[in-house]
């Protein structure tokens, strides 16, 4: 078999670049959730703390899913540098609002790659990203429900609101 055929990628080059950016975005989300977990941990907000430690793990898993996908398909996955992680937060509500904002940005990015894959007839990437589209809808819904809880329980002590937040 000639080298050109052996090294051929099943993913489109520009799509691969976008996927590498997505790895960086997922790792940044992971680091950001870790900072949020620390804030909650220091304030004994037990359910929120557990939720954000878990989120940090999940985002890393998302990054790894894409990382392995690129390499499994003949591409080059790039280990990203994670910079500009915010460790200071105003309140628990601000943390959840930031989380929702972050998830919406990730959803938009995934949809953009999905569209590009479709335009380039990169079916293998399109199929892989279907899982992420569903996952993002669930993630956004999770944070929207928690923010609703703050509205419903307005004026209640923070620890009581935290107790009503489901850990997963
Ligand atoms: Fe993610
Ligand atoms: Fe997420």
Description:
There is one protein chain. This protein is mostly helical. It has a single domain (11-164), classed as Up-down Bundle (Ferritin). It is 75% helix and 0% strand. Helix 2 packs antiparallel against helix 3 and helix 4 (92-119) runs antiparallel to helix 5 (123-152). The longest helix has 30 residues, at 13-42. The radius of gyration is 18 Å and the shape is elongated. The mean pLDDT is 95. The structure holds fe (ii) ion (2 copies). One fe (ii) ion (FE2) binds at residues 29, 59, 103, 106, 139.
> Segments where pLDDT lies below 50 for 5+ residues?
none
Profile the largest sheet. Answer: none
| Secondary structural class | mainly alpha
Secondary-structure element pattern, one letter each: HHHHHH
Task: Round the mean pLDDT to the nearest integer and report it.
Answer: 95
Helix amount: over 70%
Radius of gyration: 18 Å
User: Judging by the overall fold, what is the CATH architecture?
Assistant: Up-down Bundle
Cofactors, ions, other ligands: fe (ii) ion
- Note the total helix count: 6
| Whole-number tally of structural domains | 1
CATH homologous superfamily caption: Ferritin, core subunit, four-helix bundle
Based on CA inertia axes, which overall geometry fits? Answer: elongated
- What is the straight-line distance between the termini? 49 Å
The total beta strand count reads 0
CATH topology: Ferritin
Give the class-level CATH name: Mainly Alpha
Q: Please report which band the strand proportion falls in: under 5%, 5-15%, 15-25%, 25-35%, 35-45% or over 45%.
A: under 5%
């Amino acid at each position: 078999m000639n080298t050109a055929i052996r090294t051929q990628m099943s993913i489109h080059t520009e799509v691969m670049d976008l996927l590498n950016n997505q790895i960086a975005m997922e790792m940044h989300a992971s680091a950001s959730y870790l900072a949020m977990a620390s804030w909650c941990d220091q304030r004994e907000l037990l359910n929120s703390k557990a939720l954000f430690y878990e989120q940090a793990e999940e985002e890393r898993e998302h990054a790894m899913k894409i990382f392995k996908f690129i390499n499994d398909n003949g591409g080059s996955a790039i280990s990203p540098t994670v910079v500009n992680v915010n460790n200071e937060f105003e309140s628990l509500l601000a943390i959840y609002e930031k989380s929702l904002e972050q998830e919406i940005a990730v959803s938009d990015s995934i949809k953009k790659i999905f569209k590009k894959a479709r335009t380039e007839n990169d079916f293998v990437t399109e199929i892989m990203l279907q899982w992420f589209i569903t996952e993002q809808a669930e993630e956004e819904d999770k944070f929207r429900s928690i923010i609703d809880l703050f509205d419903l329980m307005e004026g209640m002590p923070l620890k009581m609101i935290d107790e009503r937040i489901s850990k997963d």
